[in-house]
């Protein structure tokens, strides 16, 4: 079994390091040759891991995880064909939704990622969790078996749509307000901001319902309860990206829901406003 993890960032490096414990030949694949330092959670001994460039891969891979930011996916897709074969299982370990439509290979699956970490230059720090939720299919069942002896936990879902949409809604609320507010979760102390956050999520729920998902006001309450547990200083990926002047994963979070709302003729004034401001920012790239 040959395994490759594309995207030597926070998520990809964690997956590759953990798979290497049972499958030492697992490759961490990046744009160029490199060596990264990996700092596991709880201050365990750090490790180093090599990054292999695409051109150094000599054997087609049986399993490929893709863990780049969603706006980087296009460049990965153009480099896939020489390193995979007809039966390769492709796991998209990314936030957002709608990316699978762009992958022209049949055995591709969207994962819902619960792996938390951060990359700074050549240092990758893993904070917590090793979990990937995937649609339950014969192929993903095989993959689950394969990861049995590793820390990577694959949860097979009968209704993956619900799991994807729930995370999408969690990201929709907090990423929107922290990106536009250019501040951390402490923004939620303001009742005005909480109202806006609720408004955006309720619009997202209306779109999810149009898509056939069984979400309601209890979904909103459960998401707001998750936010209450966030420490004041916690930023989101969109907050860090916007304050560092980097592109945002907005087209696969706000943009995806916005386009679905248009399709179903659902009025989403909060989402339209957020999407307009984020699009104006994103247009510089
Ligand atoms: P990240 O740290 O930015 O890692 C992405 C890596 O992929 C970077 O090292 C990037 O290199 C590399 N890359 C870019 N284009 C590439 C290409 N064509 N081929 C190979 N490598 C390429 O991102 P991340 O935080 O791991 O996030 C990955 C996905 O997981 C995102 O969708 C994110 O939303 C999601 N997620 C992240 C977390 C988290 O805690 N980090 C949690 C849950 C979900 P350059 O930097 O040089 O471009």
**What is the C-alpha radius of gyration, as a whole number of Å?**
19 Å
What's the mean pLDDT score? 97
Q: Main sheet?
A: 8 strands, mixed, barrel
Q: Write down the CATH topology of the largest domain.
A: Rossmann fold
CATH homology superfamily of the largest domain: NAD(P)-binding Rossmann-like Domain
Structural class, by secondary structure, is: alpha/beta
Q: Give the percentage of residues in beta strands.
A: 15-25%
What is the topology, as strand order, of the major beta sheet? 1-2-4-3-8-7-6-5
What is the CATH class name of the largest domain?
Alpha Beta
| Helical percentage | 25-40%
Give the N-to-C terminal Cα separation.
Answer: 39 Å
Number of DSSP E strands: 9
Q: Give the number of helices.
A: 9
What pattern of helices and strands is seen along the backbone? EHEEEEHEEEHEHHHHHH
Q: What ligands are attached or bound here?
A: NADP nicotinamide-adenine-dinucleotide phosphate
Shape: globular
Q: Which regions have little confidence, pLDDT < 50, spanning 5+ residues?
A: none
What's the domain count? 2
CATH architecture of the largest domain, by name, is: 3-Layer(aba) Sandwich
Your description of this structure?
This protein has two domains: 156 residues, 3-Layer(aba) Sandwich (Rossmann fold); 123 residues, Orthogonal Bundle (N-(1-d-carboxylethyl)-l-norvaline Dehydrogenase, domain 2). The longest helix has 22 residues. Strand 8, helix 3 and strand 9 form a beta-alpha-beta unit. The protein has nine helices and nine strands. It has 285 residues and is α/β, with parallel strands linked by helices. 39% of the residues lie in helices and 24% in strands. NADP nicotinamide-adenine-dinucleotide phosphate binds next to helix 1, strand 2, helix 2 and strand 7. The site of NADP nicotinamide-adenine-dinucleotide phosphate has 27 residues, from helix 1, strand 2, helix 2 and strand 7. One of its GO terms (molecular function) is phosphogluconate dehydrogenase (decarboxylating) activity. Belongs to the ketopantoate reductase family. It holds the Pfam family ApbA_C.
